[in-house]
Amino acid sequence: MSEETLPETGPGGPGAGGPGPGTGPASAAGSGALSPIRQWPALDLAGTDFDPVLGELMREGPVSRVALPNGEGWAWLVTRYEDVRAVANDPRFSREAVMDHPVTRLAPHFIPDRGAVGFLDPPDHTRLRRAVAPAFTAKGVERVRDRARVMLDELVDELVRGGPPADLTHAVLSPFPIAVICELMGVPTADRHDMHTWTQVILSSAHGKEASEKAKREMGAYFAELVELREGSTGEDVASLLGAAVGQGEVALEEAVGLCVLLQIGGEAVTNNSGQMFYLLLTRPDLAEHLRYHPAARPRAIDELLRYIPHRNAVGLSRIATRDVEIAGRRIRAGEAVYVSYLAANRDPDVFPDPETIDLSRSPNPHVAFGFGPHYCPGGQLARLESELLVDALLDRVPGLKLAVPPHQVPFRKGALIRGPESLPVTW
């Protein structure tokens, strides 16, 4: 659940009203010629297959130029680990400026809205994240651990009681993250179905821009009412923290709503991440067996799976250079759009030896699955907690868990911005 890994840029970047910027011969640093613009289509990839276009871009060099299916113009793409971290942590690359440029992007709609935390720079970004920080600290996440474990146990009880075969996504992997993020957000149980429906429409390009924007407006209206109801609250959930901040004049209601939408949507991304994680474990039984009989290895293994899993399609949110900056020998000019690929960074062989191999004992493992810099995913600890609880519960309580169909028959989501299986048929 991350500002970085969410699926959309805002309207920003090069190319407004004509060709993208830097079309002249002097746009590259030194005398190097500009790389050709690579068209990057929205691919519906199955399983944990790595995006072949991204793989080619990585091989062509650390900085390249891409055009995505929506928006306008082209943008720089940075793929090398150190360069990705440098751009993500460099104040010369602005998120806020994206709103004033029609950047090339993956989806037809914009997530989040102007003024939301994903499109803010410090100090406003810092101020807004500070308002909800207590919910995402180690202490805040631990606050929901016991409740999360109880909810998960109930779901696994129902799974086992129903007997095989079953759809693991429908039975556990979808309802569990929804319940946990709603618990953290302060969304009542009765409203969780609506939250899930809105999120699925927002996160899909298949429904079209109009349906996605409508779902986002409806979710925003819900959170506006919820936050207003919590003004003056002393609760520890996100809606209460933001209600208190709005009541004290520290955060505008519009800002609070944008942050709620971002966090809620990001929280459900765990469904797809965990779906890929269990698809991987169930198609590589040796990995599952190792973790079943070596529980102490699970935390490190989860980090390795987070590094390896291609959790999204293409790239997330872009940035705009506010001045000329040189990255890996390429001059990125002021006003040009830049994307970083955390998926590519997590496969950088200079940082992760033999990156295509899943090494459950890999250490150190400085992966950037949750982003880097000021926009680092606020829910990283929560996502890890959910992954640990899921692995513990399903490996320990459902011995013999395996796919009920051949791997190639597992259906993966079509037109989805966050990758994952639509269903995961299992037996035991």
Describe this structure in words.
Helix content is 44%, strand content 8%. By secondary structure, the chain is α+β, with helices and mostly antiparallel strands. The strands form 3 sheets. The chain has a 6-stranded mixed beta sheet, sandwiched between helices. It has a 3-stranded antiparallel beta sheet with strand order 5-11-10. Helix 3 (124-136) crosses helix 9 and helix 10 (253-283) runs parallel beside helix 14 (380-397). The model is unreliable at 4-31 (pLDDT under 50).
Summarize the main sheet. Answer: 6 strands, mixed
- The rounded distance between the terminal residues' Cα atoms is 31 Å
Which spans of ≥5 residues are poorly predicted at pLDDT below 50?
Answer: 4-31
Strand order of the largest sheet: 1-2-3-9-6-4
Overall body shape: globular
Average pLDDT, all residues: 89
Question: Measured on Cα atoms, how large is the radius of gyration?
Answer: 21 Å
